[in-house]
Write a structure and sequence with these properties.
The protein contains three helices and 24 strands. It is an alpha/beta fold and 293 residues long.
Length: 293
C-alpha cells in the first residue's frame, strides 16, 4: 500500500509547476532599437537572406569593425526602408557612414544586456525548452540551453505589458524546424534573450524577440527571426534567412505583481522531496509487509 501511495503522489506531482512572478520594470534599447542586425566584428550572408522592417526598425549596423567586414549581404536585401550603417563608408553600397550613431547604439545594446542579465527574481529552467509553456517572468537558462520542438509563451491572466526575459548561462542552440509560439495578445516585443555565448538557430527554425548575444549569432538556412540579432562579435546568416525588425524601443514589464498561476516548469525539488518521503514510508512499512507474507 505504501508503495502505491508513494508512486501515486510522485506521479501526480510530476505535473506540478514552479511559481514565478511577472517581471516589473523597463529596459531601454536606445539607439540600438533601430537595428535588426547590430554586430561588432562582422556580418556575413551565404546568400538570399532578407532583412525587413522600416527606416526605424530594419537597419543593419557594424561597429567598431569597418564596413568591409559585411560580406555577402547587399543593400538590396535590406528592404522596407532600412539601410546599412558603417563606421567608414566601406562595405555594401549604398550605405550610411555614421560612426557616432553606431557607437551609441552599441553602448545602448551593452547597457540593456547588463540590465537584463541582472534581473531578479528568476525561475531556473532545465536544459530543454521545447515543450514548455511559460507565463510572463524572468527565466534563467541551463548551461547549453536547447530548444527542440515548440516553446510556447502565453499570458493566461491577461496581464498588461507581459514580458519574458531569458538569462543565459552558456550557449543557446535551437533545433531544426523548432518554434517559439506566442499566445493570444503576446507580441515579439515582449520577449528578450540575453545569451553570454553563441546562439545557433536551427535550419528552418522560427524564433522571436530581441536576441542579445555577448559573442556570435548564427542562423541556419531558412531560419526566421521575428526580432533582432545583436551580437558583440559576428552575425552569420547561412542563407535564405529572414529577420524582421521590431518597433519597440524598450522592454516594459507589467505593473501587476499579483499571482499568475505559475508555469509549466516542473518543480523538480518538490518532486524529489515527495519521492524521498514515499521511499521512507515504504521502508517503514516493509517489516509489516514481510510478516504478512
Amino acid at each position: 500500500m505504501a508503495l502505491v501511495v508513494a508512486a501515486a503522489v510522485t506521479f501526480l506531482h510530476q505535473n506540478a509547476t514552479a511559481a514565478t512572478l511577472p517581471w516589473t520594470g523597463t529596459i531601454d534599447y536606445g539607439a540600438a532599437s533601430g537595428f535588426a542586425i547590430l554586430a561588432g566584428s562582422g556580418i556575413t550572408d551565404a546568400g538570399g537572406s532578407l532583412i525587413t522592417g522600416t527606416a526605424t526598425t530594419g537597419n543593419v549596423g557594424l561597429s567598431p569593425t569597418t564596413g568591409a567586414a559585411i560580406t555577402g549581404l547587399t543593400a538590396a536585401q535590406v528592404t522596407g526602408g532600412g539601410q546599412i550603417y558603417t563606421v567608414n563608408g566601406a562595405g555594401p553600397l549604398p550605405n550610411v557612414n555614421d560612426p557616432g550613431l553606431l557607437t551609441t547604439a552599441k553602448n545602448n545594446f551593452g547597457a540593456a544586456y547588463t540590465l537584463a542579465a541582472n534581473q531578479t527574481p528568476f525561475t531556473s529552467l532545465g536544459q530543454q525548452l521545447g515543450g514548455l509553456n511559460l507565463v510572463p517572468g524572468v527565466y534563467r537558462l541551463s548551461t547549453l540551453a536547447l530548444l527542440d520542438g515548440t516553446l510556447t509563451l502565453s499570458n493566461p491572466n491577461g496581464l498588461v505589458n507581459p514580458s519574458w526575459i531569458f538569462q543565459g548561462t552558456d550557449s543557446l542552440v535551437t533545433g531544426s524546424s523548432s518554434k517559439v509560439v506566442l499566445g493570444t495578445g503576446v507580441v515579439p516585443c515582449d520577449v528578450l534573450w540575453e545569451i553570454p555565448f553563441q546562439t545557433t538557430l536551427g535550419t528552418r527554425s522560427t524564433f522571436v524577440g530581441t536576441l542579445m548575444d555577448h559573442t556570435e549569432i548564427e542562423m541556419g538556412t531558412y531560419a526566421t527571426l521575428d526580432g533582432r540579432a545583436w551580437a558583440d562579435t559576428a552575425v552569420v546568416l547561412d542563407g535564405y534567412d529572414t529577420i524582421t525588425g521590431l518597433p519597440c524601443t524598450s522592454l516594459v514589464g507589467t505593473s501587476d505583481t499579483g499571482g499568475n498561476g505559475g508555469t509549466t516548469v516542473p518543480d523538480y525539488g518538490s518532486t524529489m522531496l515527495l519521492l524521498g518521503f514515499g521511499l521512507i514510508t515504504l521502508l517503514a512499512f516493509k517489516p509489516r509487509f514481510s510478516s504478512l507474507a
